[in-house]
Amino acid sequence: MVISMDKSTEVFYSSTRDSSKKIQASQAILQGLSEDGGLFVPDHIPTLDKSLKELSEMGYKEVAYEVMKLFLTDFTKEELSDCIKKAYDSKFDTEVIAPLTEAEGTYYLELFHGATIAFKDMALSILPHLMITSAKKNNAKEQIVILTATSGDTGKAALAGFAGVEGTKIIVFYPKNGVSPIQEKQMVTQKGDNAYVIGIHGNFDDAQTGVKQLFADKELEKQMKENGLRFSSANSINIGRLVPQVVYYVYSYAKLLKEGKIADGEKINVVVPTGNFGNILAAFYAKNMGVPIAKLICASNENKVLYDFFSTGSYDRNREFVLTSSPSMDILISSNLERLIYRIAGNDAKKNAEFMTSLSQNGSYAITDEMKAQLEDFYGNYASEQETADRIKDLYEKTGYVIDTHTAVASAVYEKYKKETGDGTKTVIASTASPFKFTRSVMNAIDTKYDSMGDFELVDELSKLANVKVPNAIEEIRTAPVLHDTVCDKTEMKATVERILK
Fold first, then answer.
1. Is-contact 93 471, C-beta < 8 A?
2. What per-residue string of b and e applies to 82-108 under the rule 16 or more CB within 10 Å gives b?
3. Which of the ends of the chain has fewer CB neighbours closer than 10 A, N or C?
4. What pLDDT sits at residue 6?
């Protein structure tokens, strides 16, 4: 196998629950989730081998290559460059891919200019290419079945990425009453003979747990193998989803440097609205690669399991599940947190496995004081539904800038952080979705008079209000027919998958 880098810098991957077996990046991407239920983690976080000054002279695609080559060390230069070129193309409606917009002295990193107007596009537009390349590299002959649970955005971004991709099928489960009308319409109108969308009676955690159980089902795996099929995941549990997310944190720093907004080496804070913990973990990886990030501000909505964890060191999902206006964060089991737990446990897979067993059996675990001390880079807080709405209204009235509900959670938490600490460090907020995806919540926050309007009337009104063109992702679903209407109970997920795969 051709390796694109010096062997001494090669990064291998192992499970958070068993570090004895090491595999290459392409194998980890192809597998998605480890057989023992653990997540794949790099054996070390590589250091950037280009200076931030050098990176500041590059475009998004070039920065993507410089970051991803350090993690995906068994990809050749040609393979990785080809994946990047295919991913970051005209699907994005801005040339810079991830623009930074300044409002009230804070920089909003707009991650929603892709095909499905949410940050998931940043990683899910490249994942199919990484996966097909990985399959070829490993002589995998089976058809890849992408199995994914979504709280709203991953589903559509994965469907858009994998629909029509030869040698793949994609099955997406979502909570039937737990996504916005626009999110649901985006998914159920998805074209592609290889795409299947199923609503479940249950919440996102039920969908995610069901998917993990299917991955761990040995009998099902055997049946699939006999029929030339293999599962893989498009959730952020797949390392091929996480690595591309590291890129935009490196890029945003380089961009601020180029524009003279910060000095070389000056620290910035990063605020991320957080549900499954993948996006903020990517920022943590960027910090460990050498990006001068001071605080990683973890913003939760009323499902504040992460805020409580950072406050107390105890993770406890035994609580009421709240349906909020920021549904992509309505999560009580933050899967990617396991990667951080593994790291602060001293890369001790056995210790991490004990925590995860406790989570699965008791719904909770508590980390040690030594582990908690390693979380000082993080600050956690949450925004209530009222605070989220107030922040949308306040920012719009002061600046004319309209943000979505998830970004508003982050912005509201950042206001709390500033008030609490007086920290004036320049700050980047990850703006994870377009306000057009959550029009009713956004417009109601600005003025309740809009509540009587239909979903697409609201879209047009928002366009006028924000002085922003309606994104193509919304225009194309306006009159699109519903192609997927399957709904099942959370206990019927396996039977539904077996029926799809015949």
1. yes
2. ebbeebbeebbeeeebbebeebeebbb
3. C
4. 46
Flag whether pLDDT at 29 surpasses 90: yes
- On the CB side of 359, CA atoms within 13 Å amount to 24
Give the angle subtended at the CA of 324 by the CAs of 340 and 152, to the nearest 5°: 65
Residue 5 region by backbone torsions, left for phi larger than 0, else alpha for psi between -120 and 50, else beta? beta
Q: Is 120 a catalytic residue?
A: yes
The DSSP H or E segment spanning 410 is helix 405-421
**pLDDT value at 2 more than 80:** no
Q: Tokens standing for 97? A: 């891919």
Q: What are phi and psi of 263, to 5 degrees?
A: -90, 155
Query: How is 223-243 classified by DSSP, letter by letter?
Result: HHHHTTEEEE--STTSHHHHH
| Amino acid found at 316 | D
Which is the catalytic residue, given 120, 156, 255, 304?
120
Q: Give, as one character, the DSSP assignment of residue 97.
A: S
Task: Give the model confidence (pLDDT) of 170-223 as tens digits.
Answer: 999 999 999 999 999 999 999 999 999 999 999 999 999 999 999 999 999 999
Read off the pLDDT band of 151 (50, 70, 90). confident
**Alpha-carbon span 444 to 449, nearest angstrom:** 7
